[in-house]
Amino acid sequence: MSRKQIHIAAHFPGVNNTTVWSDPAAGSHIEFDSFRTFAQEAERGKFDFLFLAEGLRLREQNGEIYDLDVVGRPDTFTILAALAAVTDRLGLAGTINSTFNEPYEVARQFASLDHLSAGRAAWNVVTSWDEFTGENFRRGGFLAESDRYARAESFLSAATTLWDSWNDDDLTDDASDEFLTRGDAGAYSYRDRFFDIEGRFNVPRSPQGRPVIFQAGDSDAGREFAAAEADAIFSRHGDLENGTKFYADVKRRLAKYGRRHDELLILPAVTFIIGDTDAEAADVAHEVRLAQFSAATATRLIEQLWNVPLPDFDADGPFPTFDPVEGESTVSKGRASVRMLGRDAKGIADQWRGIAAAQGLSARETVATAIARGGLVGSPETVADQLDELVQNDAADGVILAPHITPGGLTPFVDRVVPILQERGVYRTDYEGSTLREHLGLAHPDRVATQEAAS
């Protein structure tokens, strides 16, 4: 039985708790040279794509800017378009919100990026849950959870209608090298309860037909949306036990939509620490986790779970002795709180307090242990083993690496782990195609349509 090929991508971490700002090797998260260095290193490692998150407002808590947001976050499309000019094969994936944007604009931007990059664009379709972000936009407010995914589905359907309004044969060259188009090229009409748009889409069919579609939601509605519409899932289940459960659950949903097992890739985000020995890597990983969860970050997270401000709280001491306050979140603005990861706030608090008591940990140390992302930790051989185990045991189809150092954090993995995977025959030694769909083994949508029509 042949072994599965491993897909590897890189997440430019931006402003989140994987970043260790205090490390002397840490660089800017807003200067273009950081993005260029990061992308070119990923391409040197023959990665499938670079993934860039999006933030639409600085996060706040207790009236202060969240401590990881102090550098802001530049526009996703601008960065990806610039990176298209300094890379040749690396896919370019961006998170763009479906709650506060419009289908025509987003479809046009992604189609343009796909042309500029010769077929390397991908869209991570996300929704926004909070009124705080909505204040930046004309509509303001926020959507109920049931409407968020309904609008996202409609949004993607509308964008697909726009992309499909051109066919490959709508654009041809004549003897004078002038373009001739059919009279209905780009014509579209889309109407439902969310959108009422009609006109002509002014970007011809792109090299991939459509950008690759990613989805990152973990709720039941999010999993269903991914099974119906997405090409890949940006998952948070990076360990073997939870990964196999998530993988099996999402893959089983595909048949309902007439899709095959291999038409949806599952790619969890994972951190990594590589040392000369497993023991050395474990020691470094412990120090990195503590650096990722500063006293300020840990306090903000604990306030989110307890649902009250804790102005005099010492994160290097014990947890609050009282239980979390029930009800709507009163302290978290513009950030998905810990409560969103589990509805039982008291249960999580009891679990954290139990870990702290059993292991003699402070509140900050416990938070760093309890909610840090799943990671690959060990010598180069051990990390290669861990990654291969995830993929061969159907816990993932690959991973999206989130280094704790930007922009040079990918180098140890590229230099020390990639050659081992290549020697084992589970990872490419060079790019075989030019588009992101080819890197990921995904069919061009026009060919899928032709095959379905023939059957």
TrEMBL record:
<keyword id="KW-0560">Oxidoreductase</keyword>
<dbReference type="Pfam" id="PF00296">
    <property type="entry name" value="Bac_luciferase"/>
</dbReference>
<dbReference type="InterPro" id="IPR011251">
    <property type="entry name" value="Luciferase-like_dom"/>
</dbReference>
<feature type="domain" description="Luciferase-like">
    <location>
        <begin position="23"/>
        <end position="392"/>
    </location>
</feature>
<comment type="similarity">
    <text>Belongs to the NtaA/SnaA/DszA monooxygenase family.</text>
</comment>
<dbReference type="InterPro" id="IPR051260">
    <property type="entry name" value="Diverse_substr_monoxygenases"/>
</dbReference>
<dbReference type="GO" id="GO:0016705">
    <property type="term" value="F:oxidoreductase activity, acting on paired donors, with incorporation or reduction of molecular oxygen"/>
</dbReference>
<feature type="binding site">
    <location>
        <position position="149"/>
    </location>
    <ligand>
        <name>FMN</name>
    </ligand>
</feature>
<dbReference type="InterPro" id="IPR016215">
    <property type="entry name" value="NTA_MOA"/>
</dbReference>
<keyword id="KW-0288">FMN</keyword>
<feature type="binding site">
    <location>
        <position position="95"/>
    </location>
    <ligand>
        <name>FMN</name>
    </ligand>
</feature>
<dbReference type="GO" id="GO:0004497">
    <property type="term" value="F:monooxygenase activity"/>
</dbReference>
<keyword id="KW-0285">Flavoprotein</keyword>
<feature type="binding site">
    <location>
        <position position="219"/>
    </location>
    <ligand>
        <name>FMN</name>
    </ligand>
</feature>
<dbReference type="InterPro" id="IPR036661">
    <property type="entry name" value="Luciferase-like_sf"/>
</dbReference>
<keyword id="KW-0503">Monooxygenase</keyword>
<protein>
    <submittedName>
        <fullName>Nitrilotriacetate monooxygenase component A</fullName>
    </submittedName>
</protein>
